């Protein structure tokens, strides 16, 4: 007997086997259909959303969660709609030939991008993810199972009805290509469907991502912590360092690409670079968690701590912490090598930066730091799919294989090899019993 | 307290952080050093190998295992040595720029290939894997932990001493870059070091691969079963079909790219294509496991079964089985769509083939079958890194993400993003508080 989760996963696999054969035009038409349906049912969806909001307020949910739930904040609804059209307009990620080799006359090998297959997307609160991930999955030829948090159930059901209706209207894309799961079925049982589900994409808190990574054998695309560091090297420009550090810390402290750790080369503690950076952080209202030698140099430099901010001793744990707030941990390191070692040991392999005028030092840092993004003289806040020019962002991955860093649609495709022959058999070729040699010449494509 | 496995894994991580910063020349020099040392210590290694062989014979190990253990079979030792030089001569897989975008004036983004990090390679019997995988890991800038089976302990220790000595001789590559583990430490405790190990590569039986996949959260590069199918469509050329099927089945039945399932379009059962294929298989000494309708047509065609071969009824399980022998399961399917569905349900997503003269049918098959290799009119036996022109083969992957199909050195690298700026901060740009627009123009590279 199949469990409910297995039935859902098998249904997704069957839909995947159909949608992956459709053309870019057919897939993009489904996105336009979703756009139309969500636009035409705005009233009903916002009514459902108001029910979720009322229940959330009654349950005294934190205001940050209520804000994430609320589809009427600013232009959230319209930008959600526009996002669907934007994804439809992107280049087709499927069917790209990335290698073409003539193995022999009339025996041509092509490596071609194909959809990954079945995605499981698990998210919290934000109902606009439904539109966004449906668009991304369909555009890249994947089937997707969407599982939302229970706090957005009413909105989720209203939007799910629209997506299903929109797909039915296409006549080509199976309605089950996007399955929106609102049953009580536990996420855990979906996470065990590694026979049918190819990739899990968590969209939510670090705790959610960590929970998922701990509980599945399916590859997970995403990141838990974003512990980014900036190392200010010996000959950094003081003003540049101060500007970058303040931007990376304060531009959006809740972002995973915000800086959490500041490593200062020991040699700059006795120069004016040190007070320049520290005073800029204090002026920006950032709490400093400092090691004893930093505290000593604060005193030596006679730096005044404004009333509104705090300077406190750092613990070892602070250098493993994503503060997501106006807080930064600061320590001194004896050398570039120590900075690299610190980052590789304590960081989360997300995005790390060196500030220096010395190109050789920068290159050593870029080669030595084991992170998805390695920056020279630029704010870590640039780590973002839109800023990188990808047009969309599936997430930011700290995995070592497949997609890494900000991930666009290319993270939702893999590849396969197509071999087109005229009856060739292996036994005719050298190494398998015959005398024929392979040509291995590139094919123009 | 660190466990022994954790110490090994951490040591590998530290070595990884060094070797990934070395040049192609430095890495390739280490390969030449390994070549020299293994060549100079051939006598000692073969003496150690003889001890393993004596113990294996005394323990009555099967002759196939003894053959795999034996480094003196044919030119095994010399071709192992040549393999190390061949890998050294390949293009550097590290440091390739795969995307370059000017985000703004003086703010350049590069996507650059980098080593994956730390590999855990688990293998059985074949001691030549030590030279092969050491070469592949070093060439691609990775550290590796090698764990062999206990039946090759003497050979393993002798070769491990050579590899360590060879690396020490380089003066640049840390000796611990390749750790050869001969302790009693269980594989299980290494498989749990997902903090430090980035990729597991099993080199051995299906049972080994399955065990590893079941017992680790680290991504596994490889495949368990190779259940490949050939579908003979309505208008297949009879002679071509017979030649391809016989080659795919008999050229090397123990290979993962050998065909196991033959799907015949119902429409060919009443044509002479059917007896042509069947008689070719019988002549090649292949046992046929057939469904009732195939059996019926065997009778109708009055096909004589030679004494030396068997025709037996197929069970449903036969279509999920990798026979690794002169056995093939045969069934009829009503249509191309049914063939695709059968393969997606029963196959192992390795390599599958359609034989047809109809290009439209072929393209439907190539798009619809969910496998690493999809072939049109060519033997499945071509699924191989050397035949594809990669110069080496790390393994054949049936994963959906990262490397798929025959994997060359590119399966041992990932990428990171390098951003090179001049003090740019996010707050100056639109979307993060400022007015500057991104350029997103390609950089020549």
TrEMBL record, chains A, B:
Descriptive protein name: glutamate-5-semialdehyde dehydrogenase
Keywords for the protein's UniProt record, in alphabetical order: Amino-acid biosynthesis, NADP, Oxidoreductase, Proline biosynthesis
SUPFAM superfamilies: ALDH-like
Pfam family, one: Aldedh
UniProt GO molecular function: glutamate-5-semialdehyde dehydrogenase activity; NADP binding
HAMAP family for the chain: ProA
Family as reported in the entry's similarity comment: Belongs to the gamma-glutamyl phosphate reductase family.
Keyword set includes NADP: yes
InterPro entries: Ald_DH/histidinol_DH (IPR016161), Ald_DH_C (IPR016163), Ald_DH_N (IPR016162), Aldehyde_DH_dom (IPR015590), G-glutamylP_reductase_CS (IPR020593), Glu-5-SA_DH (IPR012134), GPR_dom (IPR000965)
Catalyses which reaction(s): L-glutamate 5-semialdehyde + phosphate + NADP(+) = L-glutamyl 5-phosphate + NADPH + H(+)
Group of enzyme by EC: oxidoreductase
